[in-house]
What we know:
heterotrimer; A: mainly alpha; 3-stranded mixed sheet; 19 helices; B: mainly alpha; Four Helix Bundle (Hemerythrin (Met), subunit A); about 0% strand; flat
Amino acid sequence: MFLFIFIGVPLAIAGFLPLISRVSRRLLPDFLSNLCFVLLLAASVSIFNLWPGAGRFSHNLQWFGSNLNLALALDGLNVLMLFTVSVVSLAVGLFSINYIDRYGSRAIYYAILLVLVASINGIILATDLFTMYIFIEAAGIASYGLVALGRTRNSTEGAFKYLILSGVASSFILSGIALIFIKTGTTGIREISMAKNSITELSLILFIAGFGLKCALVPFHFWMPDAYTAAPAVMPAMSSGIFVKTAGVYAICRVFFNVYGLTPAVSSVMVYLGVISILAGAFLALGQTRLRRMLAYSSISQVGYIILGLGIGTPLGIIGGLLHLFYHSIFKTLLFLNAGAVEYATGTDESVDLGGLGGRLPFSSGTNIIGLLSAAGVPPLNGFWSKLIIVIALIQVKMFLYAFIAIFASVVTLWYLLLIQRRVFFGKLKESLKQVVEVPFWMTFSMAALAFVCVWTGVVFASFISEWVLPAATVLLDGLKSSLNTFMIGG
Amino acid sequence: MTAFLLAGTMVFAALAVFLKDMLKAVICLLISSVFLGIIFFRLNAPFAGVFEISVVAGLIVVLFILTISLTGGQKSFVEPSISLPIFLVLFFIFSYVLFVGIFRSGPAEEPVSMVEEYSKIGEVLWMGRALDTVGQISVIFAGVFVLLCVVGRKRDDK
Amino acid sequence: MIDEYLIFYPVLVPILAGIVCWCIPEPLKKLRNAVAVLACGFLIWLSAIIYYQHQPIYFSSIWFVSNINFSLKATALSSFIVLWISIFSFLITLYVAEKMASEKSREFITYLLITTGFACGAVLSNSFVPLLFFWEGLLVTLYLFILLGGKPDSFRTALKAFVLVGLCDFCFIGGVALYWKMTGSFDFPVRPIPVSGIGLASFILMVIGATGKAGALPFHTWIPDAAVDAPVGFMAFLPGALEKLLGIYLLTVICFDFFSIIPGSPGSMGLMSLGALTIVIAVSMALIQKDIKRLLSYHAISQVGYMIVGIGTGMPAGIAGGLFHMLNNAIYKSALFLGAGSVEHKTKTSDLKFLGGLYNQMPVTGLCFIICAAAISGVWPLNGYVSKEMVIHSALETGYKIFAVACWIGAILTFASFLKASHSMFFGETREQFKDVKENGPVILFPMIVLAALCIFFGVYNRVPLSMISGSVSLTSHHEFSAHALDILNPISGITVLCLIIAFLLHTYGWYKAGKKAHLASEVVHNLPVIKKLYELAERRIFDIYHQGMRLVNSLSIALYYGFDRSSDWLYETLIVQSGKKAINSLRFVHRGYVSEYAGWIFVGVFLVALFILIF
């Protein structure tokens, strides 16, 4: 029953919120949803402590003794993902307390956010590819709602593009699942990995394209910049922070490592896509002046690192990729929230119109520096370690060119992020911005907390790897065996 | 028959991308989803079909139509004409590969564990795929909230 | 049984106290000073406990990565050094707390406490990693300290010190890296390794690091500049006392724990030559200085030479002499700096030309200064005499008389220059403007009195400190060094005494010659034909490696700027920026916002992936 709270509780609260909003328009929605996020964070930490440390455990829920057929599974990878999701969603939830005032009904907004979190948790805990697909769809619709929350025409247009292109992704994924179903007659992860000859090239291609679209790898990345630019800052924070990580990266991990087993072909496709994304994303980001658009391209580049690390397939590469997954969730959420704070304070996120805000927005400026240094991989902040591990893994397998590209792109990352920092926060304060004041408490609190996590997880990266990332990497390294060794535990 | 349905799915999906009129594009998407749903039913996957039709064909399309009618989006996109032929060529190459792949792969040799057949859709939902039902609930929630949000905003604007 | 965490406290307590002092605001200045003084007092108590354990204490815990240990060790030698570090920081804190009324005292006390903590950490380290950590930390506090001077050139001097000491530290890191390559471990070795091959390179680099920290040639040139530009408390604390303790401690450890230096080996010869050169050159520079603080700082360099010679002999008596001289030097040198500082504080000048006849106004300060000046010159029976004798005896025992001769030359010039300094500061006629100068308060006098008393005590009862040191020189079980310590009736002591007499005559002659102006007493030496030229060059900083290095770097950078940078700028502007812009624009061209185009690209991607997988 314990596992189900990750899906059930947010969903239930989401259902009640619109009703509650008739009683209390502000306080109760704020309180209830953030309480829920805190609860989920506590639950994910306690799951880490309860979880025996190895193996994949399947929970089949019971309700008064009768079987509910609600099967959820937990292994090292899930534990890490649940933790990531909980941290990011709590930060976004707290940030929203002040931020969401300008975007319509608070209760509805929180309901969408909760559904998004519930669906993302569903993707993580599902034992069945088709269930995963349904939750991906649900999360996709919820993020579409978040994009459309913006009040401009652009946001509607961005939302539309997002929905069309993610529809393409869904159809690819669904076709892939269908092909597997044709072959094996089942969609359960464990059953498929038991089956012989379940792999067809076609389904591989479909999955690569589908999940590639979901995690915005070049050349499947087109929806991301438009959608992120159009939406309020919480959407890119949630999406880049966790939705891309679960619907894209986590799904790729599950399908290609645990269902198919990593073949050399898939491995090299992942490496190529990763490298192309790193380079193209970094260069595209360099040319942008809008904060969120630049961060969107930056996300493409950083997700490239994750996929590159995972694609190498060596233990070190996988550890680096998963570490970067967690770290990127933290610092990219932080950067998006910073962009949101700037927009909240000034009304624009076009960096050309901004300048010298460092004195007016000291908190946002400070946390933004921490975030950007993490993203660029400056020691001892967190991004440094994961990139370092990925580069070492690349050198280990003698891919020197890619290692060079990875280092080069991180220099470019530092370049464009410093550029934007200078344009927005440093320099002379523009006349039009004299009236700007620091953003309200909960926004600064949430940003400061994320910045602290950035620094802290960077400092204690060694123990973080050994306690959180290593079990997750073991799951991927075990490949097919991991999903076969599923132990059933009654609810 | 499956092949024709698949072809229909593809064609309508392509149309959904290309038609300049948003409303027509959305309707094409609807038809494409319905075809896909039928394919699922035919492939002994009634539950998949149920979800495809209810989720994609039903909810998303309703969302689309609502958004478009609210924002009057039909005049906004002026797409260059050059991309269409390129896209079509690529699309048909892709579809060809897809078809060849499907026909080559043929039917399953020996399905490992065929899911038990359930007689009614309700049983399918409840007994076989309980978690999918939860997912379905999430989808409906999300859809409803997004609708509320879009409509509510529209009201605010007025 | 003693708690192993005990030896962690000398590192932790001062640093924490420093942070606390930093946080105490200006109105509560008295509280801050009290906290600092109490923390230092507590530190003395702690280190005394550690010292009197009479057994090594080990502490080890994991530092970030699992295979590098944060391990500390308190041996007889290191706990002895820690004890003295804490005594000095106590005395200097006391002095600073009373004297520094300016707004800088908060920073000064904070830096002082943190420096103390780092110094204790460096001395107690039992592994290269914490050693380097604390060592580099000291570099940073050094830089910050000099900046506090607030003089126009403070920044430049701070930079100079940073670069020179940083260079030495860099050499030390290089030496550690080579050492690690040989032993494969960052822990201190159980057994010393021979000086040969890579070991020789490592040894040389490490010695540069250690002696450079202590202020030996040729990395000494920042000290005289700092004497003018930095607060006097700093001079008494770091170049006067702490850096000697640290550098010589490290040198001892390098010579006898990391490597095995035996008497007569090339390593020993090299060290002794370095020491002899340092003595002679620095003391000759000291002789002609007209500013008391610059004069003292050159002596701070010159005295290091004796310690290096003593340790370089490789013989127990020499090592003990070197260590004892290190301790003595720290005592009288910081007292001299404090004395000079308080004179400057009262008279607002440190130029010998304008001082004079202050003995009547400031009798206690003057007495302390004179005792310490006599001690540094090696007057019987003060502590400087004892340690210099030990060094000279063992230098002669190695068979190379040249080193003993260098020591004697050093003794002549040291005494001559201190005669000049004391004479021109405290005797002669009292100047009009200093008539109403008053003696310092008791809190300022206390450190000086204690140190001067120690000079006498350690000379007469040299058995006490020597027995403490002999436990540290672990070559053989036990040595009785104090046998000939105060024996004046042997030929070697005779020569030393002769040197002092020569120095006295030299000073008197110079004094008469210069028309009874004490501050010009050294002009006799200054005006000797060849030497005058050399002095001119030295005053123009021809021999300052930092100055020359900076000139070289400057001309190099100009050459590079025009030869390489401009041309590569052009390449960068035209080639990289322009083509980069083109590339980015062409990439952006793809993102025009048309869904069908996007879909087209997606299919291209799918197609390529498919092609790849099917072909693979």
